[in-house]
Amino acid sequence: MVEYLPRSAWNARPPNGGPGNLTVSRVQGAVIHWPGTGSTKVIHTKAAVASALRGWQDYHMDSRGWSDIAYQVAVDQAGRAWTLRGLRTQSGANGDNDVNERYGAVLLVLVTGEQPTAAMKATTRAVIADFRKIYPRGTAIRPHSAVRPEPTDCPGDPARAAIARGDFTPGHTPGHPEDDMTPAQMQELKNFIEARTQAYALWVHKQLRRDLTAVAKAYTLDIKNYERQTDAADAARAAAAVWATAPKSLQTDGTPATPEPTPAPDPNTDPPLPAADLDPFPPVDTTPDDTAPASTTPASTTPASTAADDTAPASAAPDGTATAAATPDAAAPGGAVSGVNP
């Protein structure tokens, strides 16, 4: 349960009239604001918050002409809740009458760039839970920049991010301590994560490269083994095929096989002829025959009148008998050889 500091805690001025209470059936949700002073000087102590609230009330009433400080409730970084107009009174901070009638207004005491603390988030969730008890339909939680008709930076980037994460939603429990980190810490964490990610990526790259190299080597070795086995198998099959065509005598265990019978000639097939019988120009055998009869001597072309002897002596035959030598007849047709002249 939230303890709300009364208006007297910050020495508030009494309101100058006012718009009255919100209509329960019209309320759609609560809008989150910040002061938007542009200052970076934090407002953390109770006295500093009270003083700031009085200054903002004076500005709203004296410079803007409003009936009171514009917001319903304020929450500071220490988790204190301050009563301003109160949850039942219509605010004047959302932009125009229509938006003011449909939304409540919760002020976060933040300066430029300041992150909401865990205490501020917890108290804001409790305040919005009380708001929803009064306005059951008012479940929306919106940044001022989302509902104001004119552009505005309110409630600042840190608060907008907290709204988007659900940090101000009742029942939400922050699951990560980095929700309360400063921008500098967030940047440091980002740099750390990026560095670790790059280092891990490099490690994965080296690991994969080593593993892939090992796989490639193993694959290459398997291929070579397969090729050797395949070559050996092919050689064995080739040898078996050659051995199957070898003569039967070679296929026994050193014992000569029975000669295969000569197949009977096929009467329907011409017998094969030796190559020599098919040669139209067979070679002439010039080898001397020891059994040939008496050799012949060519007749002399010398005229008979100049020859020493027109008769050739008898040559000795192997059996000792004498035979007349044959002389060519110049008048014989065709160069025939005759034993006597005509």
UniProtKB/TrEMBL annotation:
InterPro entries: Amidase/PGRP_sf, Amidase_domain, PGRP. CDD domains: PGRP (cd06583). Residues 258-285 have a biased composition (Pro residues). It comes from the Bacteria. Residues 246-342 are annotated as: Disordered. Residues 289-335 have a biased composition (Low complexity). One of its GO terms (molecular function) is N-acetylmuramoyl-L-alanine amidase activity. Gene3D superfamilies: Peptidoglycan recognition protein-like. GO terms for biological process: peptidoglycan catabolic process. PANTHER family: PEPTIDOGLYCAN RECOGNITION PROTEIN (PTHR11022), PEPTIDOGLYCAN-RECOGNITION PROTEIN LC-RELATED (PTHR11022:SF41). This is N-acetylmuramoyl-L-alanine amidase. It comes from Kribbella solani.
